[in-house]
Amino acid sequence: MADKKRRINCRLGSFLGLAIVWLCAASANAQQPQINQSYQFPKQGGSSTLELPAQPKQPGSDALTIPSLPPSQSGNPQPPPFPSLRSQPGQQLTLPPHELARQPGYEQVTVTVTNPRHGYETGLNKGDFRLYIDGQQRPIEFFRQDLNTPVSLGILVDTSGSMQPKIPQARAAIAQLLMNLNQRDDVFLFAFSIRPFLLQGFTTNHALVATRLALLHAYGQTALFDAILDGLLMVEHGRYDKKALLVITDGMDNSSQSSLAQVIAQARRLGVLIYSIGIGDPNGSSMPGLALGPFVFGGDVDRVDAQTLRILSSETGARTFIVREVGDGAALSQATRTISDELREQYTVGFTAPDPSAGGYRNLRVDVPGHPNDDVRVRKGVTVGPGSSYASIPPP
User: What is the CA 139 to chain-centroid distance, rounded?
Assistant: First the structure.
């Protein structure tokens, strides 16, 4: 009789446990924003929509959707006024001649040059640079100093459960970034946890993007690689030739369908700068937590995968910032300010790779011989041939 009661109690306990998990998940799903399935990519050149050809489904790509604003922000919200940037030299967009850009093997890379004494090395000319593909010097056929050259920029914000206490500081830091951008920068906003959500498609209305920050709410686990792949797919269709992503995360990938290798391969193909801000301890335990609805139990919620973020930044010529404690958000805001400043202090260099018909990945190096103490940062290589960043650019 006692054994029978124990079995009944055990079954009741299991049933109640499953019921609690189901209620947590149902409650969390009820809090998810309503999804608008009608979003389309912007067409290159600034038109409103782009009809994409049929293509194999990529991990996470079905999440390129835009949720509706909460009722309090629907209609025509009145965003806070954003200060206007003063017109500066280089604000006009200089592009390579169409014949050069359509030439097989043509590629462009972004180069950042910093001096250990006074920061960014500005005022350099085409003749100051040397470019090498697989160790062989190649002529520089296009050169541009990116003083306020407009950028197509994607902002990807981790909203997994562990980000709950950090969301307000992240909102403030992103708002600061938006105010510091070039007025013509084309920006979109992603949130990601167990899957990515597109909160705002490409727009030059940065104040509108700022209103979308109210949609950032912590929930679930972290699909970092899926989010970056979707971000790369999105930014590929930006109107400008200079493209970048900013990833803000406090954790490690624990729910993606895709891998780091897939992200690196796509980043190499597209040549997009991937900046990142990691919030947390890079030396913490790598034991993952258990996510039930919006809650995360166990594991080390302060652990951030700094190594992965640095690999992505290094591969693409960008930078990673590690903020161990978010605190009042000052360090986070400083990191976003540094990134927005850096985008205006770079150079764009164009060249034609040898034997483009062979395709494949080519190692890249850029030097500035006249400034031997400067640090020259550029992506590690380029993917040449069909599918590369310039192979699919349509005529103007």
Answer: 31
- Number of CB atoms found within 10 A of residue 22's CB: 12
Q: What is the pLDDT of residue 76?
A: 41
Q: Is 134 helix (H, G, I), strand (E, B) or coil?
A: coil
Residues of the chain with CATH 3.40.50.410: 59-67+149-342
Question: CA-CA distance, 36 to 46, in Å (whole number)?
Answer: 22
Asked if residue 191 lies in contact with residue 248, where contact means CB atoms within 8 angstroms, the answer is no
Q: Which H or E run includes 8?
A: helix 2-31
**Mean of the per-residue pLDDT values of the chain:** 78
So what's the pLDDT on residue 343?
A: 97
Q: Which tokens belong to 368?
A: 């500035």
Alpha-carbon distance of 230 to 376, in angstroms, equals 29
3-state SS, residue 33:
coil
pLDDT in tens, 65-94: 334 444 434 344 444 444 443 334 444 678
Instruction: Give burial (CB, 10 Å; 0-12/13-18/19+) of 40.
Output: middle
CATH for 59-67+149-342, among 3.40.50.410, 3.40.50.300, 3.30.450.80, 3.10.28.20? 3.40.50.410
Residue pointed to by tokens 């290589």: 381
How confident is the model over 333-349, as pLDDT tens digits? 999 999 999 999 999 99
Residue burial 152-183, b: 16+ Cβ < 10 Å; e: rest: bbbbbbbbbbbbbebbebbbbbbbbbbbbbbe
- Residue 205 identity (one-letter amino acid): N
Rounded to whole angstroms, the Cα distance separating 106 from 61 reads 28
Q: How far apart are CA 385 and CA 391, in angstroms?
A: 7
User: Given a cut of 50, is residue 109 above it in pLDDT?
Assistant: yes
Do residues 289 and 296 lie in contact, with contact meaning Cβ atoms separated by under 8 Å?
yes
- Angstrom distances, CA of residue 104 to CA of 108, 144, 153, 358, 396: 13, 21, 26, 11, 17
Alpha helices in 181-257 (DSSP H): 206-212, 224-235
